[in-house]
Specification:
The radius of gyration is 26 Å and the shape is elongated. It is built from 16 helices and no strands. It has helices at about 30-60, 65-70, 85-95, 100-125, 130-135, 145-150, 160-195, 205-210, 215-235, 255-300, 310-345, 350-360, 360-390, 400-420, 430-455, 460-475. With about 475 residues, it is mostly helical.
Length: about 475
């Protein structure tokens, strides 16, 4: 055992550190980012499967309906188009659609994170600075700068209570965000149920449901990142943190600090991927509403078919968004892979970790450049289309919907600038991350309320979009 390091490495050693009852470290502290990323991939596959089943079921004279209802019971459905295909099966298709496993998984991840958070609070007496200092008593090789890294959390510096209380109220807003988002989704599901035909027959509500989940996913990842930062402050060894090593192969606080900060970064990258997908859904809705109005205008003039320029407009607009999605996805996959290897393989991946560290700066600026160019192209394309065809989008109210989709990125950027302004610029990286994640948990609740206002399921463009998509489907066949 190494001798205990004294002197400058223990800046708080002169403070009285009472003895606290030891609590068993939680066995969990799950690394949520790869779980959520895999869950989203499986969710998209599940969504496609259910939509195919739904399409076949609602199709008139469907073999699936004949097998389940019997040929003599086909009159249970709508007499002409088969949209009401048996109340029980129609209800089951609505209940077990993709949004049900989405909210169940997000609810489970939220509860798991709240359990880990409660365990951390129990060990640290609700983030009491003295209890946090006590968690470092057995650490033998702390660096000389560790006190500066935790000056507002472990130390007694003026203003240290602000971060603590801001973090303590964050879980309340995470739960509220889940409730508001879930209720907002149920509004759209209920409207689809009343209109009949299934989610597949109402693409406007389908895309709105995907977009509405954005603040909940961001809130969950922000809360997980918040928890990781407090695990640094509490010197936690929960979960895979007990296995990580530094470049010398030693299990110490510095290795856990670096790993938690990597996990913090990766959590938000997964949220950014979903945000890019939400932007694609918004762009698709905007283009479809424009196409619906142009089709309606041609129909009023006695013309038939879709305007031939519509496909060109759609293709040019989504090119930038596809680039943005690819950029976010590539960055998230890289950091998910490298961080997961370091977290779960531990000392056996030391050579891999050193290689990753050697190219860390180059990779950072590469993805920064890709993201800047791709996001500028994506947002520029959407704004250009919105301004050009604004007369077709009055009923759609694109401004509120656009900001509800993109405001989280704007908030994140402004908060990053806020950390450069005194007195916030005196905070360390860990404490700045704490402030950033805590505020984002609270702001996501406000964004969920904005989604409630912006994505009203009673707006008339949802119905117009159904007719337009049906026309496109008939032309395709």
């Amino acid at each position: 055992k190494k001798p205990r390091v004294e002197g400058s490495t223990r800046p708080f050693s002169n403070l009285t550190t009472p003895r606290f009852q030891a609590h068993r470290a939680p066995a969990g502290a799950m690394y949520v980012a790869p779980v959520l990323a895999l869950g989203l991939v499986l969710l998209l596959a599940y969504r496609c499967c259910v939509k195919i089943l739904e399409h076949r079921w609602h199709r008139p004279h469907s073999p699936a309906r004949q097998a389940l209802l019997g040929a003599e019971d086909q009159d249970l459905g709508s007499p002409s188009d088969g949209e009401d295909s048996g109340p029980l099966m129609r209800l089951m298709l609505l209940v077990f659609h993709y949004y049900t496993p989405l909210y169940l998984v997000l609810g489970w991840l939220t509860l798991t994170e709240l359990r880990d958070w409660h365990s951390l609070l129990a060990r640290t007496h609700w983030l009491e600075p003295a209890a946090l200092r006590a968690s470092f008593d057995d650490e033998t090789d702390l660096p000389s700068w560790w006190g500066n890294e935790l000056q507002y959390t472990v130390g007694d510096k003026s203003g240290s209570g602000c971060l603590r209380y801001l973090s303590l109220v964050s879980p309340i807003f995470v739960v509220l965000t889940w409730l508001v988002t879930c209720c907002n989704t149920l509004r759209h599901v209920y409207v689809v149920h009343c209109k009949r035909g299934g989610v597949n027959s109402h693409p406007g509500h389908d895309s709105a449901i995907l977009i509405i989940a954005l603040p909940l996913i961001y809130s969950l990842m922000a809360f997980k990142s918040l928890n990781r930062m407090w695990m640094i402050c509490a010197n936690s060894k929960a979960g895979s943190l007990g296995d990580v090593v530094d470049f010398s192969g030693q299990h110490n606080w510095i290795a856990r600090l670096v790993m938690c900060q990597l996990m913090y970064k990766t959590n938000f990258m997964v949220a950014d991927v979903y945000e890019a997908m939400a932007l694609f859904q918004f762009a698709w809705l905007t283009l479809s509403v424009i196409g619906a109005h142009r089709y309606k205008k041609k129909k009023a003039n006695g013309e038939v078919g879709e305007d031939p320029t519509q496909k060109g407009i759609e293709a040019l607009t989504v090119q930038g968004i596809y680039l943005f999605i690819f950029s976010c996805l590539l960055e998230a996959v890289y950091y998910l892979f490298t961080t997961s290897v370091e977290a779960y393989v531990g000392a056996a991946a030391l050579h891999f970790t050193i290689k990753v560290q050697n190219i860390k700066e180059k990779v950072h600026f590469f993805f920064l450049g890709c993201g800047t160019i791709a996001s500028s192209a994506a947002i520029g394309n959407v704004v250009t289309v919105e301004l050009t065809f604004h007369e077709f989008l009055e009923e759609f109210r694109p401004s509120a919907k656009f900001w509800s989709t993109k405001i989280l990125v704007s908030i994140a950027f402004l908060q990053s600038l806020l950390l450069l302004i005194p007195p916030l610029d005196t905070m360390s990286v860990t404490e700045g991350n704490l402030f950033y994640a805590s505020l984002l948990c609270i702001e996501c609740f406000g964004v969920s309320l904005l989604h409630w206002i912006a994505w009203n399921p009673a707006e008339g463009w949802y119905t117009a979009l159904v007719e337009y998509m049906r026309m496109k489907g008939n032309e395709g066949t």
